[in-house]
Design brief:
Radius of gyration: 12 Å
Number of helices: 2
Number of domains: 1
Order of helices and strands: EEHEEEEHE
CATH class: Mainly Beta
Number of strands: 7
Largest sheet: 7 strands, mixed
């Protein structure tokens, strides 16, 4: 199992969309997610067709958070050109985990950065 970590503290269980198909589908078709989803090679996401709102942390290549936002259902998020990965979680979770711009995140138990 993979984990999302900040400063040695485990924030959440982590799924990694590590194939093209997994990145394309993301959280579509689900009623929610326990933990978070890491989508590498992304600088924009959407919630078109999704069943729930999400929090989004846009991260650079080193998983430093460069922007945090929330997307309601059926919305297209902004293009964040400096982002190289996106972390998605159910709306409210990034606030609960206190994820902020400038945070250095890590993954454990995966080959991702």
């Amino acid at each position: 199992m993979a984990w999302l970590v900040r400063g040695g503290e485990v924030l959440a269980a982590l799924e990694v969309a590590d194939t093209r198909n997994a990145r394309r589908w993301g959280l579509l078709g689900r009623d929610g997610i326990e933990g978070a989803l890491l989508i590498p090679k992304a600088h924009q996401v959407h919630t078109i067709g999704m069943r729930f709102a999400i929090d989004v942390a846009y991260c650079d290549a080193d998983l430093v958070v460069v922007r945090v936002g929330r997307l309601a259902r059926n919305r297209v998020g902004p293009v964040v050109w400096s982002a190289r990965a996106v972390i998605e979680a159910e709306a409210g979770m990034l606030g609960r985990w206190n994820v902020q711009v400038g945070d250095q995140l890590e993954t454990r138990g995966t080959d991702q950065p």
